[in-house]
Write a structure and sequence with these properties.
Layout (H helix, E strand, L loop, with lengths): L2 H7 L8 H21 L3 H20 L17 H10 L3 H7 L2 H8 L7 H20 L4 H21 L23 H59 L3 H14 L3 H24 L5 H20 L7 E2 L2 E6 L6 E4 L5 E3 L1 H7 L16 H11 L15 E7 L4 E6 L5 E5 L4 E3 L2 E3 L1
Antiparallel strand pairs: 1-2, 2-3, 3-9, 4-8, 5-6, 6-7
Helix pairs in contact: 1-3, 2-3, 2-8, 4-8, 5-8, 6-8, 7-8, 9-10, 10-11, 10-12, 11-12
Length: about 425
């Protein structure tokens, strides 16, 4: 490896100082040790290990020591730091306080909601993996990294115990007959629990009806607003019809029809269109010009208006424009759709060329989504959507077109929603998108 290639591997510029080289290598080393520990597959773990070996070789070319032969002189891995790592095992309570819930979930690979059984299973699996890696470590550096991962697992496990999902218990009340007691104080104590339960049930019922009433009031306000708009537009349409302004009257009646599809409004639209047709014919006669084709075209245009306006009422999750709608702009007429199903599994470079060459449902302008567009799919029609996984996405990783550093690109785990920067040589799922 040449000096320039080594600089490129560590993303350094010409003239980098020894301190800059050491710091940059340490940052890369720590990052890839964590990736090796948390890699979901053996294939990815091997790729990260290979990348770490390349970084170590580059560090050695730039003046550092070979990591395999002299681990004590590598930046950040002196004996004192290994001792400090072991000491941190005795102060896991401090790690718990500093760790966030989100980081703990990511370490153990859990979603926002989990049971005690799921927590224990994920914790045991992670600890087993870290212990295996630590026992088989080639040197103290890797062993120290696995030890650090075990500390984080323990801290995450302790923290997440506070957030375990516990189903609400079902209260079963059995009628009890109070027994006559000679001691009045004992009789009172026997009734404390049933009375407390009855009071709790009463409060729940009151709150339920209160919230139901609030929702009902909200619906009434919404319906009232829609009724006011309906009455306003219909009055304007009726006035235009009385004035003989048939074309504008048709437009107004169609707007009214979108608010309330009643037979009365529909009949009014048909009537206005007939009046408009008569006016057009009278103008043709008065001008001594007969253009029946133009009149028929005008009629066809007016008849098509309601259908066109109805077609613009696009919603998230609709099958439209060759795919599934996952994003709509402010106009409500344009947005993005994804292909109805995955295009397969590809390396990043293959995915970049496979999508533009795709012809699907009559469209050939498909492309690989960006990092943000991929996240919109997860949130709106994927596993993170309130309407469910209508896009039919797998619980796996998907490539985006957004690059990350040298030789990497962003992907997203559709099981958890997390995004990562990974090697382009890894094979992930691909879902093409297009604009409409």
């Amino acid at each position: 490896m040449t000096h320039d290639e080594a600089l490129s591997k560590l993303e350094l510029e010409q003239g980098a100082t020894s301190s800059e080289i050491n710091t940059q290598y340490q940052e890369f080393y720590n990052e890839f040790q964590m990736r090796i520990t948390n890699a979901p597959t053996e294939h990815q773990r091997k790729l990260y290990q290979k990348k770490l070996e390349e970084l170590a070789a580059a560090f050695e070319v730039l003046g550092g020591e070979n990591p395999e032969s002299n681990t004590q002189e590598l930046p950040g891995i002196a004996e004192s730091e290994v001792v400090e790592t072991e000491n941190r095992a005795k102060s896991s309570a401090s790690n718990q306080a500093e760790m966030s819930k989100q980081k703990a979930l990511q370490i153990l690979g859990l979603g926002e909601i989990f049971t005690a059984k799921e927590l224990e299973s994920a914790f045991r699996s992670k600890v087993s993996s870290c212990e295996t890696g630590r026992d088989n470590a080639m040197n103290d550096v890797i062993r120290s990294a696995y030890t650090e991962s075990l500390l984080e697992c323990n801290a995450a496990h302790a923290l997440l115990k506070l957030f375990v999902f516990v189903p609400a218990p079902v209260l079963k009340t059995t009628p009890t007959t109070p027994q006559v007691s000679k001691d009045p104080s004992k009789s009172k104590r026997k009734w404390v629990l049933p009375v407390s339960i009855l009071s709790g049930v009463t409060i729940v019922v009151i709150l339920f009806f209160a919230f139901s009433n609030m929702n009902s009031k909200t619906d009434e306000i919404t319906d009232s607003t829609a009724n006011i708009e309906y009455v306003k537009l219909k009055a304007e349409a009726d006035l235009l019809a009385k004035l003989g302004n048939w074309k504008d009257a048709v437009d107004k009646y169609e707007a009214v029809f979108l608010l309330a599809e009643t037979s009365e409004v529909k009949d009014s639209i048909v009537s206005m269109k007939n009046q408009l047709l008569l006016v057009l014919k009278e103008k043709e006669v008065s001008n001594a010009r007969k253009e029946p084709v133009a009149s028929e075209n005008t009629l066809k245009e007016t008849e098509r208006l309601p259908k066109e306006k109805e077609s613009k009422r696009i919603k998230i999750g609709d099958n439209y424009a060759g795919g599934i709608v996952f994003k709509i702009d402010a106009s409500g007429e344009h947005g993005l759709v994804c292909a109805p199903k995955d295009q397969g599994e590809f390396k990043w470079e293959e995915a970049k060329s496979a999508c533009p060459n795709l012809t699907l449902n009559g469209y050939s302008d498909w492309y690989l989504p960006s990092k943000d567009q991929l996240n919109s799919m997860y949130i709106n029609i994927g596993q993170g959507s309130s309407i469910g996984n209508v896009g039919g996405f797998a619980n796996n990783y998907y490539w985006s077109s957004t690059e990350y550093g040298n030789g990497n690109a962003w992907d997203q785990n559709f099981s958890t929603g997390s995004q990562f920067g990974d090697f382009k040589s890894i094979t992930y799922y691909v879902r093409a998108v297009r604009a409409f």
